[in-house]
Amino acid sequence: MPPTDSLPLPSNEASPHLELTRPDDWHLHLRDGEMLGRVVPYTARVFGRAVVMPNLSPPVATTAAAEQYAERIRSHVPAGSRFRPLMTLYLTESLSPEEVARAAASPDVVGVKLYPKGATTNSADGVEGLDALESVLVAMEKAGLPLLIHGEVTETSTDVFDRECRFLESTLAPLVERHEGLRVVFEHITTKEAAEYVMSAPPRVAATITPQHLLLNRNAIFEGGLRPHLYCLPVLKREEDREALVAAAISGDPSFFLGTDSAPHTRETKEASCGCAGIFSAPVAIEAYAEAFARAGALGRLEGFASHFGADYYGLPRNEEKIRLERADWIGPERDGEGDSAVEIFWAGSPFQYKLAD
Ligand code: NCD
Ligand code: ZN
After folding, report:
1. Cβ of 210 below 6 Å from ligand 1
2. Which of 12, 76, 144, 211 has the greatest number of CB atoms lying within 10 Å of its CB?
3. Long-range contacts, stretch 116-121, CB < 8 angstroms, 24+ apart
4. 29 lines ligand 1 (CB under 6 A)
5. How far is residue 120's CA from residue 97's CA, in Å, rounded to a whole number?
6. Residue 31 φ/ψ region, left for φ over 0, alpha for ψ in the -120 to 50 degree band, beta for the rest
7. Which ligand number lies closest to the CA of residue 55?
8. Which domains are assigned to the chain?
9. Per-residue pLDDT averaged across 7-26, rounded?
């Protein structure tokens, strides 16, 4: 897709402030129970809407379960915020075409999420192949309900850094070709190949990009020792991949939009002999994206990526409210909570150039 965002790239000179249409987060983990109450306010502080992932245990696999989960989320939205959760169904082998029709008719549900079995946190109920799901995919195509994909193969013989590329070749690209009307969001892309693929694919194929994949390469995981709080899936990749993701994000191509993949895990489960994958960025998400765009000299392209293209893709109105980011050198907060149940925050202790105004 050629760029449709007409905003010019600004000079590298820092602007004193930046006004944006209120952004949305098109890929977010909120969990449930106590954690839900802790994390919802961070997202509701800045984002108008968020696409909420269904990888709870047990997974959110029906429209009724998604609607109940949406209600629990709404009960934690602070007074004064108009934050709205947008729900997804977990694609299991028992999903039926009838359930897809119910999902498409629900005001809360915006998509179906595909996890390859075993690919990531709470993916044990994911799918092993797409063959058994033909009728479900046809129903989604008919209903115009997007399929959100965690794009990694899972076989242990494939190097962990190649899993996204192998999935793209073996599964995602053939799926897009086979189902000519299927809308597909390639979630949290991490490689140059994925970015190039989405750029050349039809407009029904889009991708989300996380702040960590724009700001860091895989060296960060090993800098001075093992850094469990920088471990997420798909894992950070090479510098050339990071550069390709930045180029895609700032290109003005509406197929790329904001999705934090903010995924809270407690310190106890991250700093362990088998630590969980997931980076919690919600408290500093918009500032982290602003940091990446500022470093690329492309702040003028942030609004399209953060506030316009996702809404346009999902066929939802753009938010009407505005937010303001102020030029300020500040250091991000370290964690939410204390002790074993604390959740470490992305970019903790590192400087930001922009801060959300109150
Ligand atoms: C996510 C989680 O913790 O739920 N983890 C992650 O590393 N991104 C799952 C996911 O999106 O893969
Ligand atoms: Zn995720």
Report:
1. no
2. 211
3. 116/150, 116/152, 116/153, 116/154, 116/167, 117/154, 118/154, 119/150, 119/152, 119/154, 119/163, 119/233, 120/55, 120/150, 120/152, 120/233, 120/277, 121/55, 121/233, 121/263, 121/265, 121/276, 121/277, 121/278
4. yes
5. 26
6. left
7. 1
8. 17-356 (3.20.20.140)
9. 77
**Residue-wise pLDDT tens digits, 246-263:** 999 999 999 999 999 999
pLDDT at 14: 64
Instruction: Give the dihedral sign, CA 14/16/22/24.
Output: positive
249-304 pLDDT, tens digit each: 999 999 999 999 999 999 999 999 999 999 999 999 999 999 999 999 999 999 99
Q: Which ligand is nearest to the CA of 234?
A: 1
Which ligand 1 atom sits nearest the alpha carbon of residue 265? Answer: 3
From ligand 2's centre to the CA of 10, what distance in Å? 32
Residue from 120, 231, 260, 344 whose mutation best tests the ligand 1 pocket (most atoms within 8 A of CB): 120
For residues 29-48, average pLDDT: 98
Q: Is 288 in the pocket of ligand 1 (CB under 6 A)?
A: no
Q: pLDDT at position 310, please?
A: 99
108 lines ligand 1 (CB under 6 A): no
Mutate to test the pocket of ligand 1, among 27, 55, 346 (most ligand atoms within 8 A of CB): 55
Average pLDDT of the residues of the chain: 95
pLDDT at 119: 86
Q: Whose CA is nearest to atom 5 of ligand 1?
A: 278
- Residue 212 near ligand 1, beta carbon < 6 Å: no
Quick one: DSSP state of residue 329?
A: E
